Structure prediction request, 703 residues.
Amino acid sequence: RGDSRAADRTVDSVCPYCGVGCQLTYHIKDEKILFVEGRDGPSNQGRLCVKGRFGFDYPYHPARLSRPLIRRPGVPKGLDPDFDPRHPLTHFREASWDEALDLAADGLKAIKSAQGPDGLAGFGSAKCSNEEAWLFQKLVRTSFGSNHVDHCTRLCHASSVAALMECIGSGAVTASFMQALQADVVILTGCNPAINHPVAATYFKQAARNGTKLIILDPRGQALDAYAHRSVRFTPGGDVSLYNAMLNVIVSEGLFDQAYIDAHTEGFEALKSHVRELTPEAMSPACGVAPEQIRELARLYASADKAMIFWGMGISQHVHGTDNARCLISLALACGHTGRPGTGLHPLRGQNNVQGASDAGMIPMVLPDYQPVTDAQVRAAFEELWNTPLDATPGLTVVEIMDAIAAGTIKGMYILGENPAMSDPDLDHARAALASLEHLVVQDLFVTETAQFADVILPASAWPEKDGSVTNTNRQVQLGRAAVPLPGEAKPDWWIIQQIATRLGLDWGYTHPREVFAEMKQVMASLDHITWERLERESSVTYPCPAEDAPGADVVFSDTFPTSSGRATFTPTRPLPPDEPVDGDFPTVLITGRQLEHWHTGSMTRRSRVLDDLEPEPVASLAPAELVRLRLTPGEPITITTRRGDITLKARVDPLMAEGMVFVPFCYVEAAANLLTNPALDPDGKIPEFKYAACRLQRAASA
Ligand code: SF4
Prediction:
């Protein structure tokens, strides 16, 4: 905490990192952020984690871009170990905005005229504000002429959204995480909130202290185990087996809520007969949980008056991620645990605006508010609004776009704030695809790993430098306010997108994000009764919201679900093995994810002094027994090999890990975890299996 007397002024805003959406205040001196304090937002009540509190100085990093860059002739595209992002003029030259924008747009135009709309694609980012996400998908749809627009939600909760849309007709949470304070039982599964949603974790701790029974189901241990009524570790990839066995117990012991099922659901009889054979005894070998323990878990959840399920990417990032989420939804529906305070389904969303960027339509199969591109009536409404015919074919998803580039179909891309050269699975493949693009435009704060493949780099705005709304995991739409000036010639992202749009023949004319928000409201019912002025006044409004002078709904679907029948659906699932089970050659499970101090590919947090000082280098976390087996002491280098490549990094002992698995964060370019990951996709959510790859561990040659 800094000295508030030293600040010239303060500006209220929102944390730019995770989906919790903590509200904060920037304390500013001489037009620079001095320090940050939490303020009394609905999802944080003054609390901040280490990222929100200390990760504010990345905009001032020496590598920050302040002028447009154009690749120098003859410099090959790709990651050059000698390239220093603080001195990019070895590989790029500075350009005026007009020259850079003309070059960016001309390259896109040339590919469209040679290849047609399918020759181009766009990746946005869940770091974009709602307004930026809206403009970006509008640009791709109305100018590129296709639906090839996606972003990192594909890599985090696409399977959760697919299951939620299918079963309950809405991809957002049914209740905020604050509702955990009112629940009797809370299941946390496939998530590690103390690391990934730290302020949400404080509510779970508070609930447990007040008597809520916390049940943690995960292959790994975690800090919240200390607060848990039960913490059960299951075999990686055994989740569908575990949940089906719990459903079997609920059905066979008659623990379901027949009145709720009759009033609100369909398909329960099919689910009942489907799970009849999936007994705890039958499922126990696959999930590694004893039958009696499975029975106890099912009874605890089903017999609670109010219970909630929270899940994270341990659920979604599997080839059976959608099935995992379907199971959790079935558990809630069977027990009547939705639609009341203290009940609900809550996929903990990862990035600060992954909910809002998806709501705003930055996904390839739906227009804003999840309205299918295949629906002629939906398209007609957007065609009228945008005065342009729209493509009726769903576009390609993140990994599919990389495959299409590799196949030579897609030849040009516009990437806004996304870093696929670090975040995509099987990075050698993804990086080779990026290098093969005829034309790549990257808009970002730094010469990221992805920008090192770009023809043109457009210097963008950091979160404290711009106005915009974001929507957190609780469906709370919140306002971020420009607090400090942009450096050099860097520009607001909405301005840059509009400049590209103008050069591609579109006539937009926005002068401020509030005008974009007003346009969104014309076709996004989710924003009804939420106005920019109201956000300026209240800072946060939850959707759906019944009136301009009423609060939004913290808990939804009390009476009906937004499906054609008004009912939710049970979707039975069959346990499936991981795409790449462990075997004699690759006997260990590789799990990738985030660290507390670093966020996603690290482009911001690794340029934040305190955060990078806390976790400055890549580490592989292993159970103590694994280090003994490998004859390693903590800190010695270990090589991890999968069928796609190998990396060497320091071994860290972690008593929360089980034998037979290793955890590696994916934010370090020095030992990029995604060089190892499996690009196999969930068939419904098209999400890669980041949470399971078969690998081999060895002492590194230098150990
Ligand atoms: Fe920011 Fe998330 Fe930490 Fe809150 S919990 S301060 S939103 S990173």
Summary: Residues 15, 17-18, 20-22, 44, 48-49, 51-52, 197-199 surround iron/sulfur cluster (CB under 6 Å). Residues 97-115 form the longest helix (19 residues). The two ends are 41 Å apart (CA to CA).
